[in-house]
Here is the input.
Amino acid sequence: MATIDLRTETIGAIPSDAIRAHAAIVIPVDATKVSGGLVNGNTYYLGEIPAGFTLKGTALRVKTASALTGTMTLQDGTITPLAAQIMNVAGMFYGTTSLPKYYKVATILYGVIATADIADAIFDVVLDGIQLLPE
Here is the structure.
């Protein structure tokens, strides 16, 4: 019996790119470094979802909670992948509304602030998905 490694691109059954395609995009945000904090009613561009990315899940990891009860909703212009999250509790908060979604072209991920300002929260926006080569 032979052992055949299908992970090599020369055989082509499972390209090595596909094995390494799972990706986590982590976007750190420190509201204390934004002049005036994250203001209620404002929209803040957080990062970019790259072309060829399939977004499977989102999360907010609040490392330092805000003293105020402001909320943030992650959006991309067509879906709302994470419901409004109060930022005054530390922890990991997951949301998967309208997912999975494939991004043929790069798209800006932004956060909309509501309820109150977020002046002092420190948090990560986490995007979990599969990064394929763009079409």
Summary: The first strand starts at residue 22 and ends at 30. DSSP finds one helix and nine strands in the chain. The domain at 22-131 is CATH 2.60.120.220 (Jelly Rolls).
